[in-house]
Amino acid sequence: MNLSQFPRRRYTEGQTPLEFLPRLSKELGGPNIWIKRDDMLGLAAGGNKTRKLEFLLADAMAKGADTLITCGAVQSNHARLTLAAACKEGFPCHLVIEERVPGSYKTDATGNNFLFHLMGAASYTVVPGGSNTMEAMEKVAEKVRQQGRKPYIIPGGGSNEVGTLGYVACAEEIMAQAFDKGLKIDYVVCTSGSGGTHAGLAVGFWGNNTKIPVIGINISRPTETQRPIICKDAKATAARFGLDFPEEIVENVEGYVGPGYSLSSPEMVEAVKLMAQTEAILLDPVYTGKSFAGLIGLIRQGRFKQGENVVFIHTGGSPALYHYKDYFAE
Ligand SMILES: *Cc1c(COP(=O)(O)O)cnc(C)c1O
Predict the structure, then answer these.
(1) Global pTM?
(2) How many CB atoms lie within 10 A of CB 130?
(3) Does ligand 1 come within 6 angstroms of the Cβ of 156?
(4) Rounded to the nearest whole angstrom, what is the distance from the C-alpha of residue 204 to the centroid of ligand 1?
(5) Is the CB–ligand 1 distance for residue 193 below 6 Å?
(6) Model confidence pLDDT, tens digit, residues 232-275
(7) Are residues 189 and 55 in the same domain?
């Protein structure tokens, strides 16, 4: 796929590692588990949004924007990384914070919230969960225009046909690494949240004719509402290459959200501890802990054969681990 037709900024030196996890694979007794370390991407503390922001910031700059506006939950990795990209490019960044769990926004909270204040967002607008965040961002944009500046709105999670290109690029990076290592990949497993990661990987592996299935684990919605979000984003992204993406290849797995988005579950706690104790890799409680719990569940259900190679995409999020440390109390 010709990604070079789209403008891109670079926020990571080289590639993120694609590592084999021998102790974890042995412990689970299923397929060979590999991990794509996108928690080690560039910008403050890394994570999957960095790949999307490479294309989003380039698009903003091509359009002459000089101010960023985005939205996210109280511990949003996306808000932290958008602010980080803004700092790096010398742009002010306004945040709309959605309080998805009532009463959860505290200005002195640790984790990502602390990093918002450390890097210094230009403004914070806190709205209740379920609000129309696009409307709230449009209102901020109007104020920014009145100040004589040019705003660029980045949707939640950076998941649109621009940001999603970052995960088309990731699919190509993984294919090149697998070729280098002589590794035959049988499955890719990722988190399915705002959708850009899942959709971009699905488009990238399909568009390069690899036939590698991408399995997205839901972390906030049931499949009935999550899958259409992925299909729409994948279609729009593939259309930018003049391709007609086949929706029927999109696979979502539900059952690992627990009591709700960002809330604890025993499966998540088990998954985060297992990864830390066997491979010394830090997952997060909101996204990767739940999606890895989903992978453990699929292994226990016998989805994969012995000897198959499964690549788990580590999308980052470790700053939130410290904020949610009570989830791991003995
Ligand atoms: C945003 C995020 C995800 C979900 O990725 P989407 O592209 O929004 O689906 C997964 N993991 C972490 C750590 C994230 O911050």
Answers:
(1) 0.98
(2) 9
(3) no
(4) 17
(5) yes
(6) 999 999 999 999 999 999 999 999 999 999 999 999 999 999 99
(7) no
- State the maximum Cα–Cα separation within the chain, in Å, rounded to a whole number: 61
Q: Give 330's pLDDT tier (boundaries 50, 70, 90).
A: confident
Q: Which of 91, 126, 158 is the last residue of a domain?
A: 158
In angstroms, the CA 116 to CA 75 distance is: 9
- Measured by CA distance, the residue closest to atom 8 of ligand 1 is 194
Q: For residue 288, give the ligand 1 atom closest to its CA.
A: 11
CA 281/CA 278 separation, integer angstroms: 8
Q: Is 76 an active-site residue?
A: yes
Q: Are 219 and 188 in contact (CB under 8 A)?
A: no
The SS3 assignment for 213 reads coil
Residue 207 Cβ inside 6 Å of ligand 1? The answer reads no
Count of other CB atoms within 10 angstroms of residue 27: 15
Q: Whose CA is nearest to atom 15 of ligand 1?
A: 77
Return the structure tokens found at 115: 């990093």
Residue 85, domain CATH: 3.40.50.1100
